[in-house]
Write a structure and sequence with these properties.
The protein is α/β, with parallel strands linked by helices. Helix content is 29%, strand content 21%. Bound molecules: flavin-adenine dinucleotide.
Amino acid sequence: MIVKVRKLREISIIILLLVIIIIIKQHLHLLLSQFESKSNLKTIGRMIYDAVVIGAGLSGIYALDQILTNKPNAKILVLEATNQIGGRLRTIDGNDFGATWCWPQNDEIVMKLIREFDIQCTSPSATQILVDPFQEEQVRLRGGTHQLVANLANKWKNKFELLLNHPVYRISRIQNMENEIQSKSKDNIVTIYADEEKNQQYLAKHVVIAIPPKICAKKIEFYPNLPNNVSQALNNTDTWMEKASKVFYEFSRPFWREYNANFSMQLSGWFLFDASFDLDGRYILCAFNTGHGDSSTSEKVDLNKIFGPFVHKFLIKSSRHDWSKNKWVNADYCPNNEVVTKSNMCRIGIHPILRNAVASSIHFASTETEYENGHMEGALRSGFRVANEICKMLNCERKTN
Ligand SMILES: Cc1cc2nc3c(=O)[nH]c(=O)nc-3n(C[C@H](O)[C@H](O)[C@H](O)COP(=O)(O)OP(=O)(O)OC[C@H]3O[C@@H](n4cnc5c(N)ncnc54)[C@H](O)[C@@H]3O)c2cc1C
């Protein structure tokens, strides 16, 4: 009898524990929001930014430029995950490891910036001479595409705050004590959490998510959750060139032009082309692998095989960048060599839903949200669009178009 009673008591304790676990699970969001209320005590008295821009790539920095152009006293903070600005615009030694070409007839905003910053353009062909971009189908920027973003950031140097090495990991619209204190203003205040170790928190009226949609889906949690269709759109939009690689080989002379004045060739997944800057006396071959599809793609280009062993006599240096290893571009990057099952094929996203703000305060930029998906022009147009939306709500008058 006593044993039976004991057993019964044990069973009821187990059931009670199970019920408690279920209740805790169901109310986790509520508990978290209460925790947030407490932890947000540390944000009291802090600045409420007009906009926090997540990502210091071209789209984020152009959004910043456009907001400040129309509202020079706007308070803006840019949070960037890496230790540099530019994102997929990466120029080292004049060589473009990210974006290289622009198409003057279509790239309206790129051309506007080229004029504004007085950047010289060269033809993309072997001779690499200076050209009038408006007479060309396709051009390169002398000095590299990173200048676009560097000049924009420099233009507003003392007018905004930039925090590098600040990856954003959470965005919360849950009302907390700080928001209540600020409730005099009817703005919907958002809390942005960056740098998980240091748990930094920032408050803003608007958030510009200027990072690739899939990176957003994988790296940032939202409270409350984003609407399902928005999460799906973020998850289903692949990142342009997320698996691309580029290798630059600099030589003492352009020996390849002896074979063919306009040298370029395709080679097991790689496109090899003349990326020299004749004007600067630099002779360069670039091997570009877009990382799409073909599983037979080789890891590297064998210049020996193409030109013969003498090639090394002229080689000064080579440098390589694999975008697939950048976890802020390639959402599938697994540093521990886990198996990546996703196909490499690049799907074109352009979900219209990503061009609508969530709760009038969360705005999605990045090249992947625009029709010019993948191009610098797409990144710029997305920055322009979100700046426009925000400016309307901040009641600033648009001065540019
Ligand atoms: C190899 C290659 C070749 C290309 N060639 C061309 C070309 O010839 N012509 C052309 O027009 N375009 C080209 N592109 C595309 C062009 O570079 C992009 O369209 C453009 O740079 C994208 O800008 P973005 O601001 O949308 O995104 P990004 O440049 O990716 O910027 C996003 C920024 O957000 C940061 N970030 C990510 N996650 C977080 C987080 N959680 N918190 C904070 N920061 C975060 C990233 O570090 C990055 O700095 C090329 C791209 C590559 C990679």
